[in-house]
């Protein structure tokens, strides 16, 4: 598994397509109560302490919404337990071990140990224009993805996305507090990330 970096990396086009560009752990439409019904924040099964919540607010500028979350410390991706990726945080936080069934995925495509949902695998297929081969892969915060056990990446999703949407004005990425999207120069392919639903693509 690839080592994580402590440097924050903002979502580029591919990760924006996969997760949108919402702030970490503060997407209200994705929030849910924890298992015991109490308004607590749990990440990878660990209940967050008041000290952590205070530090979180200092780093990210907002308190996390109560709920059960998974967090991938290698890539920085996170989501609500049982759901696909919903956002990106800094990589490298020590927040317990992410379970492989964190998203309740059944695609057979594992990234950093998490079994992706069919929708996530579909986004990758749309980007690469070929279905991902089931297996175990690593993903770093810079978009590099490779096979577990091999340090050489197979692909850089950011570069593929840039090539797919074009350069020199072809990248029409936009984002607001409520959503994000992108489209190519001819507006023949693109996506809109709908809060509470996820990315909706067209033209693929």
Rg over CA atoms: 16 Å
The best one-word shape is: globular
**Low-confidence spans: pLDDT under 50, at least 5 residues?**
1-23, 175-179
Q: Please provide the count of β strands.
A: 14
End-to-end CA span: 31 Å
Counted by DSSP, the helix tally is 4
Q: Which class do the helix and strand fractions yield? A: alpha+beta
Number of folding domains?
1
| Percent of residues in beta strands | 15-25%
> What is the averaged pLDDT score?
73
For the largest beta-sheet, the strand count, sense and barrel status come to: 5 strands, mixed
Taking strands numbered 1, 2, ... along the chain, how are they ordered across the largest sheet? 2-1-3-4-5
Helicity range? 10-25%
Elements, N to C (H/E) = HEEHEEEEEHEEEHEEEE
Describe the structure.
19% of the residues lie in helices and 24% in strands. The protein is α+β, with helices and mostly antiparallel strands. The protein has one domain (13-202). Strands 2-1-3-4-5 form a 5-stranded mixed sheet, with no helix packed on it. The chain has a 5-stranded mixed sheet with strand order 7-6-8-9-10. A 4-stranded antiparallel sheet has the order 11-12-13-14, covered by helices on one side. A hairpin with a 4-residue loop joins strand 8 (135-139) and strand 9 (144-147). The longest helix has 11 residues, at 50-60. It starts with 12 loop residues before the first helix and ends with a strand. Residues 1-23 and 175-179 have low confidence and may be disordered.
